[in-house]
Amino acid sequence: METTASAAAAKQVERSREARKARSPVLKKLKRFAPLFIMIIPGVIYLFINNYLPMLGLMIAFKDVNFAKGILASDWIGFKNFEYLFKTEDAWIITRNTLLYNITFIILNLIIAVGIAILLNEVKKKVAARFYQSIVLIPYLISMVIVGYLALAMLSGETGFINKQILPMLGIDPVSWYSEPKHWPVILVIVNIWKNAGYLCIIYLAAIIGIDPEYYEAATIDGAGKWRQITHIMIPLIMPVITIMTLLQIGRIFYSDFGLFYQVPLNTGELLSTTNVVDTYVYRALINLGDIGMSSAAGLYQSIVGFVLVLLSNYVVSKRNRDNALF
Amino acid sequence: MASRKDNLFQICIHAFFIILALMCLMPFALLLTTSFTSEASIVKEGYSLMPSQWSLEAYRFLWSDIDNIARSYGITILVTLIGTFVGLSISALLSYPMSRRDMPMRKQLAFYVFFTMLFNGGLVPTYIIYTQVFDMKNSLLALIIPGLLTNGFFVLIMRTFFQNSIPHDIIESASIDGAGEFKIFFRMILPLSLPILATIGLMQTIGYWNDWFNGLIYITDSKLFSLQNLLNRILLNAQFIQNNASTLNAGEVSNASIPLETVRMAMAVIGVVPLLCAYPFFQKYFVKGLVIGAVKG
Amino acid sequence: MNKRTNGMIAVLLAVILVLAACGGNSEGQPSNAGSTGNTDGAAGQTAELKPYELTVAFLSIGQIKDLPEVQAEVNKITQAKINATVKFLPIDIGAWQQQMNLMLAGNEPLDILVTSTGLNFGTQAAKGQLVELDELLEKYGADIQKVVGGDVIKAGSSGGKIYAVPSVRDWAADYGLVMRKDIVDKYQIDVDAIKSLDDMTAVFQTIKDNEPGMAAVLPEGPSFSVIQSIVGSVIDPLGDENGVLVGFDGELKVVNWYETPEYASLVKKARDWYNAGFIPKDISTNQTTSEQLIKANKAFAFMAHMKPGYESKESLLAGTPLVAARISPAISTTSSIANIMFGIARNSKDPERAMMFLNLLYSDAELVNLIDYGIKGKHYEVKEGNIIGFPAGVDSSNATYNPTHGWMWGNQLLSHIWEGDSADLWTKLDEFNNSAVKSKALGFSFTADPVKTEVAAVQNVKDQFKIGLENGTLDPESYLPEYIAKLKSAGMDKIVAEKQKQLDEWAAANK
């Protein structure tokens, strides 16, 4: 017994000696990269204070907070704060809605934003290109509350633009949009794209602009047409950006744009089967309770689902191309 | 032949963008005309591009609060300028080393940043830290600091750009020439990255400009309200009074007759227009072909 | 490297200490009270009180540009009477929930705050964010107890202890239909003959037949329902309407309101009205207040809960004279009283002084008028007797102090009356409150904490069906059973049982 213990101890001493020996190149490396490490200090400290310190608050999700006792001394109650998220028959519906909407948004926003960016890049007249760029950004600048009212102006049963102008032109009977849930997946997807595509396209445009023109010149000499240039040069070159954007959005897949799902359907009860998502469910659940334990629990639940999905997809990405992975 | 084909292609593109622009502009035009419509005709006819009765009442209502609105514009502009500059600097400094393939612990660093995008401890701990450790309640810092990195999203995007659009060999050759890391960063990397810096800068600007949440929780002193914050408060108060008019007595109802529908739109207009005016500034940096040649020369 | 870790640990410790300290007050309080302990004897002995600054948070909704001047005047009074200064902390309604939650969670200076059932009073009391008031009221709240006595003050209680005191305003409501007078006259509608919902149907039919483009009836406002506006005449909602008492003279039996035959017949009525075209088709997306719709000739009437002076005020808003048909007497429940109250925050370093200030709000007419209307001669002028109005050259558009918050501050009956209202408004209001039918459960307030999981789930179900059913846009034939079933599966029965249990305990304690 004793001998094995001392042998283990000896081994450990040896290991630490080895480690010390190995440290000098580490030191050298540290010295070489010292400027880079200095660069990251402000950001690292900022994230630590702004994001990591408050994470102590995650424990609130497992506590029955009583302010008279203080947060730390409040009773632990296990997963009780999470129960309401699963207690309802609607748990399945809100989970389905949240995931399906977000997947659709990720895919369609990607295709449309990249498409607009590519086309913007092809516009030859500079003034026109700048003008279009500014215009497509406008929707992003309008708040969701206002978008809700504008949508009402379009869709309202009696005075709405679509029922009054468009549908009669096509010979279709007026639709009561706000009482038929089946239309809303389409409406919400359109509103989301309308609002965000212009914003997202700027990121892709920046990536496309950064491509060295020599690539195109070489391709043109090879006789490649526009289409081939786009599919064979542009898209592969902006692939890393596309990948990272997609991964980041997957991380938020269990979150949703509260304004889009609450303000745009005007909180109409009849539409809940297709407009209720995790964030709106939590909002409605807690509006009268104001329980911080339960709201923390919801946030944690959303984060963990996103986290697991990102780890999985990041693993898949890094299998194919280590450089494109998030970490 | 090729040029005719090119022309046709250009025409198609323009046609596409004109339709797209209409789709984006139509609702905005509706917003604009609504803000100039009389409240009465909105209640009667709904929103319209050609209302039966034009009116300046919404703007007149906002004008009556011009002192506060002017001050809040000032605060928003100040906060946006400082916040964007500092935020952009920190982001660039944090993301560049992460983009270097030879940087030790770069994956861990990326994870450190990414983790903050997903997990947060909620409002209460953040609030307690900022107000009680750093004493930022009712200070301009409270409008600037919490938004600096916006969850690391921009940092990771920037990292990807640095990683992909700047060839590693030019960094190597510069460092062989004896340039220090800081010199490489400021003299080569930043000038080469103007499009992405402009992009992220624009996004941060929009973020700061439209931010009302930090003001909502950290500011109670009305002298420090930012524009969106002030507008939000005016609007919600007016809405509250209208919806709870039953609490009031006859002598008090004068406040309840605010033209809410049009004021809401007028507020959106005065919030959006300055941003649109700032956009060309960022577009200046959306320059094609900013490549090695430009720097070498 | 080591140093940096140390630094981080130091910050971390600081944060933990802060988090821990947030609750520290409960232990800190006795010693704080001790520091002012020499005042325990009587409230009037200002000489012995140390100076103290009271931070008073209130809902800011009107024009309060000159609040600093008003505050200075208020301080003259409070310094003389309780040797305290007051620092008003106006918070806008849109920011209220967030800021108040955070202020109560942190350790910021805050002594007095406005609270109400709609502003999370229940949670604040249950989570220990408010100070228990029973003893303080005994010692320093004599004037409060004089005006807000008996059952009324119990409206601000939780678990048998008082945590907030209601302001003196309309503690009751009567319910009915508010109609355009010109149209009532045109069709010679006998307002006094309208005594029930059934009586209304014929009136609505007349409007429908003769006034195209005009809705016969609307709810009280957007995001309300027609039934919701008058439901208080039938039930005591016991706070959140999850588990109610039907009627006002029966036994204390909590039931699931949505399962009752009374509810079924109400939503059936709404459906009939909707189908008959009395309720506008786009009611569920309406964003415009009923008063504005009347002003725009788009509606004839709306359902409402009312109080004395209601019609004259609404007539101003609607821009045309209105008359009301009341279908119920004035009814007083915990909810109607606990609508606006003052509580003392856990953060307070001197809860006793806070109570002394509250007491002044219920006894000192000068103070109340100052806060409600500003400085005499500057912000208002006495017109005639107790009636006041803007000074010459001032109106609501250029007033520098026009907060319209008399209903929030203590005893409103002590204040002047703004021109436009009748001179005997307060007398009428007082009679109204005194003569109101009192719910058997008046003074009981429900603590949702033990069933919060169920309350959360039930709320989502209610959001899905309630307004639609009560405005008639959903057919009760098929949707009411679905609604009931979903409520049950969300745990409504458990809430009802818990409420019954708390009500029984309350009843036993109040025998």
Describe it.
The complex is a heterotrimer of chains A (327), B (297) and C (511). Chain A has 327 residues and is an all-alpha fold. Helices cover 72% and strands 1% of the residues of chain A. Chain A folds into two domains: 14-76, no CATH class; 80-324, MetI-like (MetI-like fold). Chain A has 13 helices and two strands, in the order αββαααααααααααα. Chain A has a two-stranded antiparallel ribbon. The radius of gyration of chain A is 27 Å and the shape is flat. The two termini of chain A are 44 Å apart. Chain B is an all-alpha fold and 297 residues long. Chain B folds into two domains: 2-56; 59-296, Orthogonal Bundle (MetI-like fold). Chain B has 15 helices and no strands. Residues 292-297 of chain B have low confidence and may be disordered. Chain C contains 20 helices and 17 strands. In chain C, the strands form six sheets. Chain C has a five-stranded mixed beta sheet with strand order 2-1-3-13-6. A three-stranded antiparallel beta sheet of chain C has the order 10-7-11. A three-stranded mixed beta sheet of chain C has the order 14-15-16, with no helix packed on it. In chain C, β4 (157-158) and β5 form a beta hairpin. The relative contact order of chain C is 0.16. The model of chain C is unreliable at 1-5 and 21-46 (pLDDT under 50). Classes of the chains: A mainly alpha (327), B mainly alpha (297), C alpha/beta (511). Chains B and C meet through α2, α6 and α13 of B and α1, β2, α4, α12 and β10 of C. Chain C: It holds the Pfam family SBP_bac_1. Chain C: Residues 390-444 form the PI-PLC Y-box domain.
